Amino acid sequence: MLPLLKIGNLSLKNHLIMAPMAGITNPPFRLIAKRLGAGLVVTEMVSAVGLSRNHEKTLRYLKGDPEEKPLSVQIFGAEPQIMAIAAETAIERGADMVDINMGCPARKVVKNGSGGGLLRNPAAVQKMVTAVRKACTVPLTVKIRAGWSAGEANFREIAGIIADCGADAVTVHPRFVNQGFSGHADWRIIKEIKEKLSIPVIGNGDVFKPELALQMRAETGCDGVMIGRGALGNPWIFRQILDLEKGLEAHPPELSERKEVILSHFTHLSQIIGEDRASKLMRGQLLWYTKGLPHSSRFRGAFTGIRDVHTMMATLGRYFETLMENQENVRR
Question: What's the pLDDT tens digit per position in 137-184?
């Protein structure tokens, strides 16, 4: 039987988590990840200031589909009391879990002392987690990095503070904030934190292939695996990991399933934000969905210049029809 992951009083169906990603983990993508095996999905990073002021645009990030649940809402901010209010708002709007972002490396986030900027101030981390924990009636998690830089590698201290202040789990992306996404994730840091804490530790970073999820768990002992960029264009990675853990082969999706998921993604996104905005967002998604497929570079080159939604879908349909015809001819 596959291992479950329990965070606070919430039991997940498995230990695989879809990472929060700005502009990516909207309801359509989260729902796809959930259907393909993710035990937990997380919203895009949501501004605590926006939630505390009930900004309509910010509140939209909290909307989801019942099928996604349980749903974790990730919030970011620099003021403990505002973060506490944001957590309460998220819970009122249906969040099953709240996650505090202490790892985002974006300049506009860290310059205000939010995200990864918090790691430079352990006292601020303590005040933040304490305030949100007091207000949070659902499981509370915190996502961190290894520290601000190699010279400020304070992950041991930060992880200890987070656990002592009552968080139910910590997610560790073992890069430094000033690295962004360059270099390699040092999984030894995940292992060290896991050995230090009694609460669940979720590993994150550089799981681009299904077998790497198993490798991360074996090397670090982490309780869960969070996957971000490895799921871009390949949400099937969750199903593949689960298959490997069952002793089965990790098969890639059939072309027909890939096409069906892309169309479902676009259709659902269009219903939420309208066809024009959805078509712009889907251009980037299609680059990932078709990466590695035959003649994909030619298709992507033609696709980027298309502005009409119907032409876009027709072009996509012809591309996959050609791929499936060629595949059938090879089988004959």
Answer: 999 999 999 999 999 999 999 999 999 999 999 999 999 999 999 999
Class of domain 5-245 as given by CATH: alpha beta
C-beta of residue 311 within 8 angstroms of C-beta of residue 302: no
What are residue 41's DSSP bridge partners? 18, 71
* Other CB atoms within 10 Å distance of the CB of residue 3: 10
This prediction's pTM: 0.94
Query: Helix crossing, 155-164 with 187-196: angle to 10°?
Result: 40
List the domain boundaries for the chain. Answer: 5-245, 255-331
Whole-angstrom Cα distance, residue 84 to residue 86? 5
What is the distance between the alpha carbons of residues 1 and 3, in angstroms, rounded to a whole number? 6
Residue 173 corresponds to which amino acid? Answer: H
Q: Say which residue the tokens 């934000």 belong to.
A: 273
Q: Tell me if residue 147 falls in helix, strand or coil.
A: coil
- Domain 255-331, classified CATH 1.10.1200, yes or no: yes
Max CA distance (Å), the chain:
67
- Catalytic sites, residue numbers: 104
